[in-house]
Structures
1.
Amino acid sequence: MAVYTKIDDDALRAFLAQYDVGELLSYKGIAEGVQNTNYLVRTSKNQFILTLYEKLVDEKDLPFFLGLMEHLATHDISCPLPVHDKKGNVLKVLGGRPAVMVTFLDGFSISKPKRHHCADLGAALAGIHLAGQDFKISRANTLGLEGWQEILDRPELRIMDKEIKPGLFAIIETELAFLRENWPQDLPSGVVHADLFPDNVFFLGDHLSGLIDFYFACNDFFAYDLAICLNAWCFENDLSFNMTNARALLSAYEKTRPLNKDELAALPLLARGAAMRFLMTRVNDWISTPEDALVSRHDPIEYLRKLRFHQQIKSVNEYGFEK
Amino acid sequence: MAVYTKIDDDALRAFLAQYDVGELLSYKGIAEGVQNTNYLVRTSKNQFILTLYEKLVDEKDLPFFLGLMEHLATHDISCPLPVHDKKGNVLKVLGGRPAVMVTFLDGFSISKPKRHHCADLGAALAGIHLAGQDFKISRANTLGLEGWQEILDRPELRIMDKEIKPGLFAIIETELAFLRENWPQDLPSGVVHADLFPDNVFFLGDHLSGLIDFYFACNDFFAYDLAICLNAWCFENDLSFNMTNARALLSAYEKTRPLNKDELAALPLLARGAAMRFLMTRVNDWISTPEDALVSRHDPIEYLRKLRFHQQIKSVNEYGFEK
């Protein structure tokens, strides 16, 4: 959420001259995304987001992320379209960083999602899953079961009981063992967004206008992606579960891509896993980010409470969804 | 250079509904200005900068700053025009902060100013000085001689010799005494920008397109404002003096607002004062900003070297300017 790499006007104009995008009119560093430097660039032809990838993004994953955005954008998904330069290249270098220009999407994030937002989201998520089916590159989910265990094994995280909540380490250890024991082996899978929080979904005039930030996308169970959205969109600020939102999300998803019996049965478990995924990264960030840093830390306890909620769920019907 | 106050979509839409600016299309927190929160807001009618004033700006100065921008913008100076809401108000509240919307200016800052940029700058600066003459509010310069002394008197700055440069405190003390002894009493004065660095001047297609950031504006000698620009625009990165730029700046200024004999004679001294002003605030910021803060600290030594340069100057002719 800051501009890490400064680009001066000469460098930017030389960079833009390699594209067929017209003359530079203005550019502003924007506070979008935590991991990268982003500029909103206006030219005489259009508006773009220029992203410089900072060290947190693994360069070898960029062809997957960029190829996926281009694949989806050309398959009727409203997401940023990477712009090709005059030689046809998408991935370039600027300010010593891998750099990409994508088209600008109108719209803005919704802070308090309602039923109709969740319905739009469900349809869009199923749309990604279907459109991604003939995408040729794949990428393993580094933040799956093994990834959670790796985070837990970091010696510096041992202070979580003291820093965050007494007994947290044991709770996580027990839950991780349960998830490893019960994780499904064989559900419909393909490309998932894996981070489709309200921040990453734009609306315009109450309709979904765009999906952004594909930098956690990977191959995994489709229903796991839905479970991530269930956690991110269907709890109130006080962490009560909003069944109206959940029903809208699941029903709209189902209409575009029907869920099979195994997926429906696995959903409560996948939701526990999805809660674990964000609990783990938030615990990790909480301990490694200084309290006074300008980057805001997300509360890990929020995801512990979501995990607790799903532990009580016996079947998908309890989310308000019946097939 | 960060978004300090987060505004959600509901709050922003309710805020925009008080104006006649159309529907919200998008908004992004931008990294513009060090002191305030700024959003670039696109609506169906136009683009705006929405500024929330953080604690560093004194609220009682806002009517001066905003009135000045409106006065200048309506007197043919290309600067942001504060937008009135439907009731005619400019200064409002959003997210618990004083908040103002201004028009968006195309253009971008030049990192390596050339002769023609300095000529445009000189004309624009003189234009501000003339246009400001019938502006009715005034504001004392809090960063003048007395302000520099106040900063020097802060006990915590005593570590500057150790933290920045051995002997720096005595150099500043001696120079301050000299400036106090010799500071002119009676030069043409009025509203000055007082911070017209390249960051605050936009160009488009090699012509000046806008002036921004009036939050240091105050009443002072016009020639002092010119001296600030001389320091900010007429030194190379290696701190060699660029006489071509200086000549262009001074000549273009002179064409719009002729400098009298006293102003010309005082310019080297005013340039020492202008160097002192930024030396003092940079020393202060250097010592009070942690090394690892995301806000970048400006090197104080740059302005010590500029001060040293002007100490050797006997007359304005040595800047390359002859009248």
2.
Amino acid sequence: MPLHTPLTDLFGLQHPIILAPMAGVSGGALAAAVASAGGLGLIGGGYGDEAWGGEDWLNREYAIATETSGGERLGVGFITWSLAKKPKLLDVALAHKPTAIMLSFGDPASFSEQIHKAGALLICQVQTLAAARAAVAAGADVIVAQGTEAGGHGASRGTMALVPAVVDAAAPVPVVAAGGIADGRGLAAALALGAAGALVGTRFFAAAEAGGHPNAGERIVAAGGDHTRRTSVVDIIRGKDWPQPYTGRVLVNDFVDRWHGKEAVLTGNLADESARYAEAAATGNFDEAAIHAGEAVDLIHDVLPAGKILSGMTAEAEQILRNLASLPK
Amino acid sequence: MPLHTPLTDLFGLQHPIILAPMAGVSGGALAAAVASAGGLGLIGGGYGDEAWGGEDWLNREYAIATETSGGERLGVGFITWSLAKKPKLLDVALAHKPTAIMLSFGDPASFSEQIHKAGALLICQVQTLAAARAAVAAGADVIVAQGTEAGGHGASRGTMALVPAVVDAAAPVPVVAAGGIADGRGLAAALALGAAGALVGTRFFAAAEAGGHPNAGERIVAAGGDHTRRTSVVDIIRGKDWPQPYTGRVLVNDFVDRWHGKEAVLTGNLADESARYAEAAATGNFDEAAIHAGEAVDLIHDVLPAGKILSGMTAEAEQILRNLASLPK
């Protein structure tokens, strides 16, 4: 008994779940696994550089995703301000005839027409009510309302109050909840808030098909939600010039403890520190290298195939919705 | 068809709603209105000074609440670190035979035995998973998991991921969700997350029976959730020595714009600024004086009697739960 919502209708999904297009994590294999399980699998375009997200990479990963999943329910997510510097990557993505393109962290207006002309649907992720209104005006087909609980980049508003406010402002455009959702309880809560589904990141970072270093999933399983934080130090050390108000939520580690709150000092020590950081990232030393993950790590107890994660979340949500209906009495 | 949960069982409530014990807002009239409507009405003990929360005040407001509501489903909420400086206020509260005492923002362990011996139930509000575990160990009968969306004092974790994590850690102790809940969608989402009810603050600040300046409710109705922030400047100007990690969420106004981020300068200018602030607060000049309110202000469109707010929330939640049960198909 799949959950039937405006999101499943619009994208032809079996389940109202979207894979967050996590840079360095959501490659072709993970997107295919989510798509094969009936969700929407978004490949993470990241910063579009050679190692992750560039033209060759995107063509290769999209081909892997298509081959594995059959090519339905796939798409690409971009960091909008980064895509604006490398707009050709949108042509590359659209050439694969994706179901959807997701844009987050910047003004989507200048890309909307091209996306729609290519026959793809436009998903806009927003972090404020003001941005939700702008995304509707830009022609978004779906709005993702992302709360501060989310792993990776985001802003300050919390999921619980942001989602219903965006639902009211965006209607009749469907809204998807993101931030803090890692099990069937979160999915059921998202639907109760008026969302048509959930966008899930961190839970799928601990999937067998996730990209990145193999140690990362186990770190997420071991982590506690009290020990994540939004910070800019990981962007500073990697030379990623994120605009205000976006920060990245990471598991707190030695690197974050050492530098958070000392951003200016870190900026002055980049020559020494960045090589050290790059080596830690390459070797999977996550006491130093960051793992972008959200507050929902408390709810993640195992690394599983993405299809099992998805079917477990939806089955749990269905059970909760059935049980809740018996509360009024 | 009231919503039946472990919270309604434990406290003999008709609806799983607790009035947040807001300092300066939740006096006897508001607590009585919530209790009369079938929720739990918690009087806000605040800092226990003469103007609000002191011994005479508490006796007077509790008497008003009892007279208006019949005396059932009433209690008092204290700021734990402040109560530790004026512990006699707990004797005063317990002499009224409250249903419950709520403690928030500090270690509840030293008060637990006295509260239970007096026949009251102990509600502990927490902002982290670690604090939830400590509250269970201290003998809490109910845990309130408060997310950062909440108005007034709180910390950084978001409601969406904190609530289910606390539910798992505290079981079988019932958990109540707080932060960002202002309508039936939020209440239904709280139940979906595994909570046994919701603690509601800001929505009841815009109640006809709320204490404080009469202009405040209309300010909340007019406010937007993108324009609140957690800050310490309002505590600094009022001489309230809040410990880490607590900050107060307020509607952003001229005062907050001027001083947030310049806390040290403000501390050096207290002599000039604090008289000016006190006058603004007394005259209801909310461009300068703070209104403690949460991100859910987007969902508040009118000042209503508290009983109407409560019955509207619960009726909406019941309708949502019935509708959600038909989603799987």
